[in-house]
Amino acid sequence: MPITSGGANLFFQLVNARYEKGAMILTSNRGFAEWGEIFGDPVVATALLDRLLHHAVVVQIEGASYRLRRSRSTLMVT
């Protein structure tokens, strides 16, 4: 779901305040290229990603969703 501009700015302020002060763990099911559209402002998304990725370790998980796989096996059993 898209984030309102107010929400995007608040999230940026949070990340900016935490920048280089401590660890953060974020998860997303969207690629970085989509963040401009999600945040409604490519400039805010770029600034946000700049801070998030500066010292980041990005773990990309590929494959079928664990939750979907679990629900499919439940559907097959019933």
UniProtKB/TrEMBL annotation:
InterPro entries: IstB_ATP-bd, P-loop_NTPase
GO molecular function: ATP binding
Organism the protein comes from: Frigidibacter mobilis
All copies of domain IstB-like ATP-binding, residue ranges: 2-72
Keywords: Plasmid
The protein's name: Transposase
Pfam families: IstB_IS21
